[in-house]
Amino acid sequence: MNLIIVIILFVILTVIGMPLAFSLGISSFLTIAFMMNVPLGVLVERMIIGVDSFLLIAVPLFILAANIMNKAGITTKIFSFARSIVGSLPGSLGHANILASVVFAGISGSAVADNAALGRIEIKAMDDQGYPRKYSAAITCASATIGPIFPPSIPMVIYGGIAGVSVGKLFLGGVIPGLLIALTLMILNHNISVKNNYPRDESFSLGNVVREFRASFLPIMTPALIVGGIVFGIFTPTEAAAFAVFYAFILGLFIYRELKWSMIPGIFLETICTSTIVLFIISAASVLQWILTVEQLGVKLANMATSVDSPLIFLIIINLILFLFGMVMETTAVLIIMTPFFVPIAQSLGIDLVHLGVAMVLNLMIGLSTPPFGLGLFTVSEVSELSIEDLAIAILPFIPVLIISLVLVILFPALTLWLPSLFF
After folding, report:
1. Residue 29 is assigned to a structural domain of this protein
2. Which of 33, 124, 158, 396 has the most crowded Cβ, counting Cβ within 10 A?
3. In this structure, are residues 128 and 355 in contact, taking their beta carbons and an 8 Å threshold?
4. Which tens digits make up the pLDDT trace of 134-167?
5. Nearest CA to 114 among 398, 365, 404, 396?
6. pTM (2 decimals)?
């Protein structure tokens, strides 16, 4: 009964527009206070336990690194490099948009950071060349899903901490799926651009590519340094995040010299605000996850899973569930709540937890861009100054392409597991 009540309370609070962290916290508080025979102090205890992890220090550090690089103008250099590679292709700025997301993914590890940092640059450039604003915003939102798939990845850090999986393996496992998403989006962009006669940016020039590559080489090396450091045992994921911050400061202050000391307090304040929201969601979601555990949701799911003896069927079922959750909830909260229930069942069916984690994160990233409540839609809507309704319609052609990428990742585990197997 308590299980039903807490879910109903959470759904009601979410539907009326309450921020997710408060929906999670208030529904959990009311359930513990009035329906469960446990001390109210359990609420505070579980919230503290939810964020009492050394691994989670990586979350604000990766956010800080992304904010530093954004303020230092490094995102502009990344977009210029991507633009120089694909300038001669139809719909070239759409292709550059996607490639820039791949590179920036290796810096921020966040879809929302990608939307916020690159969105204004990309949409303005596409506006200047006559692309419809709706299309520019839609492809920006869709390409940002690459962020948490391609290493480093904040959601994969969180999943790895909960599931007890090597974050280095997860980072490597996301490389090929991330490139697969980029490829499928570029194919779609090419077809749409040819059909609508969208412009080419500039003729291809090897000299221009080399020049832009030199200007952006150091930021482009960020993911290789982070993942390489983890894979070869130089530092832990948390230490890798700290290194990313140090590296970003060096680039901004001393290499490119576009980051001023006077900008640093504002960067710290922005990072604190963003990190507080993320960690508050993790903390509140941990309480709801504990309630669901006490109410034996895991046992109920395990009993249901006994009737499913096929790993593929299980993956299909949980991905349908996650897709629905991802459309209405923040990725971090879904991972905190659902991962502890899915992992034991996946292990019993012989599903590799790296494969499971990459599929879960990819699924939730699609939900992030799926109408009506995807968080990515709200971010790009603000950046592009479009209504949610207009953006929701414009992004619909991209959703099936993203789903195709997810299906391929589910059907072919080697896409996820081959690269980690070379290093671990």
Report:
1. no
2. 158
3. no
4. 888 888 888 888 878 887 778 888 899 889 898 8
5. 365
6. 0.83
